[in-house]
Amino acid sequence: GSVFKAKLKKDENRTNYPQQVAIKIIPQDKSGYSGTESLLLNHVNFKHKNIVEYYKCLVMKEGIIECHHLYMEYCRSDLARLIQEQKSKTKHLKESEFWHLSGGLAAGLQ
Q1: pLDDT digits (tens, 9 = 90+) for 26-67
Q2: Which end of the chain has less Cβ packing within 10 Å, N or C?
Q3: C-alpha to C-alpha distance for 23 and 55, rounded to whole angstroms
């Protein structure tokens, strides 16, 4: 699905979400995949500093296609982008940066 940066209106922000969020739009296919993902996310609590926080899911129509809109924490960057930037600079991570990123990944998987 596609991901968009969004700013919530004050009346939409009733549930203490931050004003700026990321919204992932997943079209529902015949297998019902997007519905399964959103149901799963509603029953799992991802409260961890190293995992993007999930807030809620709304089902809306995009034209004639039903889509799930996943409201998530907005992150300015991601690990893949950081790795690509370092690779394009042909610059290796410092050892301290490597351990910091590795520790964050390991903590998020616990």
Answers
A1: 887 766 555 666 666 666 666 666 677 888 888 888 888 888
A2: C
A3: 10
DSSP state of 34: H
pLDDT-derived band at 93, boundaries 50, 70, 90: confident
Single pTM value for the model: 0.61
d(CA 10, CA 79): 31
- 37, 68 contact by CB (below 8 A): yes
Contact 99, 105 (CB under 8 A): no
Confirm if 21 and 4 have CB atoms less than 8 A apart.
Answer: no
Q: What is the CA radius of gyration of the chain?
A: 17
Asked whether the CA dihedral 67, 47, 42, 44 is positive or negative, the reply is positive
Looking at residue 92, its amino acid is: H
d(CA 28, CA 37): 10
CB 7 within 8 A of CB 20: yes
Rounded CA separation 77/83 (Å): 11
